[in-house]
Amino acid sequence: MARALSALVRGSGDPGRERTMKAVVYKGPNDVSVEEIPDAKIEHPADVLVRITSANICGSDLHMYEGRTSFETGRSFGHENLGEVVETGPAVSKVKVGDRVVLPFNIACGFCKNCERGFTNYCLTMQPEPKLAGAAYGFADMGPYQGGQAEYLRVPYGDFNCLRLGEDAAEKELDYVMLADIFPTGWHATEMAGVYPGDSVVIYGAGPVGIMAAYSATIKGAGKVMVVDRQPDRLKLVEEIGAIPVNDAEVDPVEFVKDQTMGFGADRGCECVGYQAHDPGGTEHPNMTLNRLVDSVRFVGGLGVVGVFLPQDPGAPDKLEQQGQVAFDYGNYWFKGQTMGSGQCPVKKYNRALRDLIAGGKASPSFIVSHELPLDQAAEGYKNFDSREDGWTKVVLHPAGA
Ligand code: NAD
Ligand code: ZN
């Protein structure tokens, strides 16, 4: 039944014909185009096929877009995906054709040693390279999976990886699509930092992830939230959610945070920039935010580092960074007795609770969205988001023209 309906929905005339679909394809550094690629299809009995209605461009896509990862040309992008189920494999029992679902960017089996412990961000089954862990759609070193900036997406282990949405799915689509990555990731940064009600929190980076970390800290009842960046449009959003913008092109952010916290430093700190951290003039310093984080957080404070750092970065201007190393102020960190959490976010750990915050009207992360574009305009979206063009804070692509 499900298959028959999907064939109808997808208008496949000749079942033997190799169908194609439109997708955002990586052509090389700073170059993407929308091309026809082989259609996504059910490849395993537990797969689900989703017709994508919203797919965001992420800061993580930009590392790949700029050619600063091992992402292969010809592959498609897109790991922040939401859509409608159009086909289910025979082993899928919970998810049904017609369900509106949001997909964690992590692809996980649910039964390996790491998934069992909640670390769906480091799934051992879905990562084909035995020395690695963790899988994602359209992502460097995270398995061969195609991205969702496309008309259709194959979702492995659909019952496990789909989060079903309620009747308000279409009305709040821009809120719910943030559950694929940045809202849980911002939340995760504050979890790893250990944010409690009343805490003072400093966040480096006012990109979508940093702003979601600030939003999460605010929802958790933080007493004071300070966000460091130098992009005026992004700092304005920080102010709009009741956090304190800190422009590091104008003030020393470490001194600013200490002044705001009676000289102690913030109770908690989040790093939401990653290895391409740079000074306001544009010169990269991969250790810049990490060291400022340590410096601006108090003794025994907690740090959550969700900005991406890589084991190798051959394109880096910095010699240490080429080998995935950073000159980290470990002495200061140790001396202060701080603790640090790091790595990809296990989206599944948080997405259900955050969905219910949205459904209950307690959170509306869509305030971050600046642009909604049809898939055909993806190249323009990448270019402007990558250059942090004024007003381009978060781009949502609508492959189905929604
Ligand atoms: P983004 O590139 O839009 O935002 C990064 C922001 O950092 C920009 O506004 C930039 O101006 C600012 N910045 C650069 N250098 C800075 C510095 N020295 N001090 C303060 N701010 C500085 O990206 P995003 O979507 O917000 O993502 C942020 C990071 O989080 C990226 O590294 C991304 O790959 C990573 N990420 C990680 C996860 C995870 O699961 N851990 C998930 C999503 C994104
Ligand atoms: Zn992302």
Explained architecture:
The model is unreliable at about 1-10 (pLDDT under 50). About 25% of the residues lie in helices and about 20% in strands. The relative contact order is 0.15. The protein folds into 2 domains: about 1-10 and about 15-180 and about 345-400, Quinone Oxidoreductase, Chain A, domain 1 (Alpha-Beta Complex); about 180-340, NAD(P)-binding Rossmann-like Domain (Rossmann fold), CATH 3.40.50. The chain has helices at about 1-10, 60-65, 115, 160, 175, 180-195, 210-220, 230-240, 255-260, 290-295, 320, 330-335, 350-360, 380-385; strands spanning about 20-30, 30-40, 50-55, 80-90, 100-105, 150-155, 165, 200-205, 225-230, 245, 265-270, 295-305, 340, 370-375, 395-400. Strands 3, 4, 5, 6, 7, 14 and 15 form a 7-stranded mixed beta sheet that branches.
Structural key phrases:
single chain; 402 residues; alpha/beta; Quinone Oxidoreductase, Chain A, domain 1; Rossmann fold; 2 domains; 7-stranded mixed sheet; 6-stranded parallel sheet; 14 helices; 22% strand; disordered N terminus; binds nicotinamide-adenine-dinucleotide; binds zinc ion
- Overall geometry comes to globular
Mean pLDDT: 95
Bound compounds, each kind once, are: nicotinamide-adenine-dinucleotide, zinc ion
Named at the architecture level, the CATH assignment of the largest domain is Alpha-Beta Complex
Level of helix content?
A: 25-40%
> What is the rounded Rg?
21 Å
Strand content: 15-25%
Number of DSSP E strands: 15
Return the structural class.
alpha/beta
CATH homologous superfamily grouping of the largest domain: Medium-chain alcohol dehydrogenases, catalytic domain
Task: Give the biggest sheet.
Answer: 7 strands, mixed
